[in-house]
Every structure is written in C-alpha cells, then in structure tokens.
Design goal:
Blueprint: H1 2-21, H2 34-42, E1 53-55, E2 58-61, E3 65-67, H3 69-73, E4 87-88, E5 98-104, H4 108-122, E6 128-133, E7 141-145, H5 149-152, E8 157-158, E9 171-174, H6 176-179, H7 185-199, H8 211-214, E10 229-230, H9 258-267
Parallel strand pairs: 5-6, 5-7, 7-9
Antiparallel strand pairs: 1-2, 2-3, 4-10, 8-9
Helix pairs in contact: 4-7
This protein binds zinc ion.
Length: 268
C-alpha cells in the first residue's frame, strides 16, 4: 500500500509537470450550463455515461465528438430512432472526386500510422482520397496532440463532423500518452481512421446502443439533429470490429469490415 501511494504521488508530480508545460492548451471549463446540458439531452446525446466537457472551441460530447455551441443550439430534437447499422451525418464532404490533404504535426510514428489509415481509405474505390502533405498551409486536415487532460478522461482522440459548406472537419487531436509507446501501430492507425471517419461524416456504428462497444447501460445516442442516416446495404444490428464503434482500445486494430466498405462506398 505504501508503495502504491508513493507511486501515486510520483504520478501526481508528473501530471503537475505535464500541466505546467501545456498551459496554453484549453482546459475543461468548470461548468457546462444547464441550458446546453438540457439541449444535448433533448437531442439525444449520452450525457450520463460520458461527461460533456466544455472547452474553448465548444464541447466534447460522447468522448470524441467536438461540437460548437452554435451547432448544439441549432439542433432540433430527434424525430426517429434508427435501429440499423452504419450512419452518416446530414453534412457530407462535397466537391467529389476530391483529395483531402492531411498534415500530421506529430512525431514520425504518427505519420506512419496516418499512412496506414490513408492506405485503408485509398484501397477502396471512393470519390475521396487522402494524401499526407508536409505543411499545414492549405491542408484540409491537421492531426496534432490533444491537450494533456484528454488522458485523464480516457479520450484517445477527437474530431468533428463536416461543415455545412461541404468541407471535412479540419482537425484531429490524438492523445500522446496513449500512443507514444503503442506496440501495435495498427491500433493507432485505427483511431486515426476512426477520427477521419467522423471528419467525413460517419457517426458511431453502434449509434443505437453505445453499450455494445463501451459497456455500461444500453443507450441510444439519438439523431442529435445532425442526422443519423441509415446507410443502405449495411446489416441490422451492431457489428463487432467496425472501425466506427464508439469505443476502442489503443492497441486494438479494426481494419474496415465488409460492411464498413459497403458504407464507405455508398457515401463516397
Ligand atoms: Zn468516435
């Protein structure tokens, strides 16, 4: 026990050190207003199993989805409750065929994993292709380190949904504490492919019941006003192994399943 608490103190010291290095990062603000919380509940997001976190640019909902206050407040309550598999948002990337350029502002391991994620997408006959570029200037998407506190909440990474103007969401944040020493590079590639999936409009595959991948009580994410459109050709019920399951582990590799490929090919 003594050893354990000493270790705890050492860990705390490390965290304090980490904090002082990252003071410019946005930290979760203390309170999410009841207005926002009620609206999120009304539009069907799970605010019980996963705390909503308020940050400078908006809110992190259901662990890895970044929504702005404007997006949240403009959503209307879900009318329908889909029960099937792969889902997309109403906003998709337009102007296809299109090349999405990705700049990875992180160490080599992250660039390697991004190449694997990109290869998975580019192996499919899609109207979207991804390409890694060497500079942030003009890049459609930048991949960079998440703020230190993501680690505290077990957040592997985060992203958002496409804009109303048809552009992919422009930023993916990854939590280095989970991935700097990852043994299976494909686990990191899977998380990058997952966040890329959100950026081009994919919602979680186990949208109708996040407990499928996350454990805990059955729960429906709801339409969220951003759309939860069933993708024809995908099966009824959640699918083990889909790259868009709500929860995963740092080392877990989930390459595209046959149904994932059907969903990708339908949308793009
Ligand atoms: Zn996700």
């Amino acid at each position: 026990m003594k050893k354990f608490s000493l270790w705890g103190i050492a860990l705390m010291a490390l965290m304090v050190f980490a904090c002082s290095q990252e003071e410019e990062s946005a930290t979760p603000q203390d309170e999410v207003s009841p207005e926002i919380l009620n609206q999120l509940k009304a539009i069907g997001f799970n605010t019980v199993d996963f705390d909503v976190k308020k940050i400078e640019t908006g809110y992190i909902v259901e662990r890895d989805i970044l929504l702005t206050e404007e997006q949240i407040m403009n959503m209307s309550p879900a009318g329908t409750t889909p029960t099937e598999e792969h889902y997309s948002t109403d906003n998709l990337v337009t102007g296809t065929p299109r090349v999405i350029s990705v700049f990875v502002n992180m160490p080599q391991r992250y660039r390697d994993a991004t190449d694997i994620a990109i290869a998975r997408y580019n192996a499919e006959p899609l109207n979207l292709t991804f390409q890694q570029v060497g500079s942030a200037a003009g890049a459609d998407m930048v991949i960079q380190a998440s703020p230190f506190w993501y680690f505290w909440f077990g957040i592997l990474g985060s992203a958002g949904f496409p804009t109303a103007g048809g552009d992919p969401f422009n930023e993916i944040l990854l939590t280095r504490q989970f991935y700097d020493n990852v043994v299976n590079i494909n686990g990191l590639a899977t998380t990058i492919a997952h966040e890329m999936g959100h950026c081009i409009g994919f919602r979680h595959t186990d949208y109708m019941d996040r407990s499928f991948s996350c454990g805990g009580a059955p729960d429906n994410e709801g339409d969220g006003g951003i759309g939860a459109n069933y993708i024809p050709g995908t099966p009824v019920g959640p699918e083990a192994g889909s790259w868009m399951l709500a929860c995963g582990s740092p080392e877990g590799d989930r390459p595209f399943t046959a149904n994932d490929k059907t969903a990708l090919n339908f949308l793009y």
